[in-house]
Each structure stands twice: as C-alpha cells, then as structure tokens.
Here is the input.
Amino acid sequence: MQLRKLAVMGGTFDPVHYGHLVAAEGVRHEFQLEKVVFVPAGRPPHKTDHRISEAKHRLAMTTLAVASNPFFEVSDLEINRPGPSYTFDTVQEVYRRYRPEEVFFITGADAVLEILSWHRVQELLKRCCFIAATRPGHDLNNLKERLQELPPHLIARIVPLEVPALAISSSDIRRRVRAGKPIKYLLPEVVEEYIFIHGLYQQDLH
Ligand code: NAP
Here is the structure.
C-alpha cells in the first residue's frame, strides 16, 4: 500500500525523551500522517568536533521508546550511511524506500535556525515541509528573521510548532544523570533502564 503522508523525525536523540515523543505524536495527529520514522543522526554534519553517544546506543534507546506506538518506527538509514548525515540525502532515501506522496521533516527549531547552511537547502525545502518544534518561550521572530534570505514560497515550507513537553531536553537529562539526579518521568522507563544498564552519561560528553 502506498503511503500518502509520512514524517521523518530527525535528531541526535542522545537520549530520546517524552518531549520528542509528544512532538511526533502531535504532528502526526495535526497533519494526519500515516507514519513517523525516527531517524537518529549518524554523523551530524555540524558536530564533527563534539562527542555524542555511540550510534548503537542512540538507535537502541529510540527503538525502545517508540515500540508501543504503531504509527512510529525507527530507521538506521543515517547511522549506516557513510559520511556526514545530510538531511537532503535522508529525505531522498525516504522517498525511495517508502514511496510516500508527501514527506514532512520534524526537528528542533534551534536546528532549523541554521538551515541556510544545510546541504542543498532550497531543493530540500521543495522536497519536504519542515516542522520546527519549539520549546515554550522560544522566540519565533528570530526564526523568521534568519530565514529572510530564502524566497517566500520556501519560508512558507517551514512551520513552527510550540510543544510544551519540549521543556524536557536531552542535555538536561545528561546533566541530571551525571549529577545523580532523577530522570524518571522525563523519558520512557525502558530508556531510563537502558541508560543505567549501559552506564551512559556518567562522563562529560559535551
Ligand atoms: P541538536 O543539536 O541535537 O538539537 C538542536 C535543538 O533541537 C536541541 O534543542 C534539541 O533538543 C532539539 N531537537 C533536536 N531534534 C529534535 C526533534 N526531533 N524534535 C524536537 N526537538 C528536537 O540537532 P541535531 O539533532 O543535530 O539536528 C537536528 C536534525 O537536523 C538532525 O536530523 C540532523 O541530521 C539535521 N541536520 C542536518 C544538517 C544538514 O543536512 N546539513 C545540518 C544540521 C542538522 P534535544 O537535545 O532535547 O533533542
């Protein structure tokens, strides 16, 4: 069966948390999507000198987190692709694999702020509509100002969406683990267990 509308949920997911899951489910409902594919970033092009957790851990945590939602799945397509993880290549691959009529790309508004520097950005925006998920209190004017260089019809392809649950953040979770503070109720219990079993975030990664 051919899919009509599908979203790619792009992010580092280090670790995945309820903010991501609530954002994806909200977008799925709002845009009547048939599937949301979580794609943990392989080698984020802008993070060559940052340390992030091993791809196998980020992939495993994301797989555990989405298991109970029949509309969600996880793909290792960036993790298994050599070279930098350009979103343009990911979206092309998603069209090839799933053959949807329309693709949306959901990610954080902070990441979208840098979109002008992304690989083949104008073609990317023609291929898919962006949902820029923002934390409460995020200044959306900033986003509009930054995008002025783009033609108006492409600016219209970026839809900001405030997600209150995004008050939760991966960096805060990592800090909390390091400081011995609880992370319960910020992410699925299976992910919490995975973090402790594998001793993740005990050292300062970022
Ligand atoms: P990031 O630095 O990990 O995250 C930037 C901000 O966005 C953080 O506040 C983060 O919150 C939030 N965020 C990230 N993914 C999110 C999601 N799916 N939903 C809601 N909030 C999210 O950004 P990143 O993960 O590296 O980049 C985001 C996506 O853009 C990835 O898929 C990456 O491959 C792509 N990207 C592509 C290019 C390119 O093609 N040249 C360049 C840069 C980024 P948390 O920390 O809480 O997640």
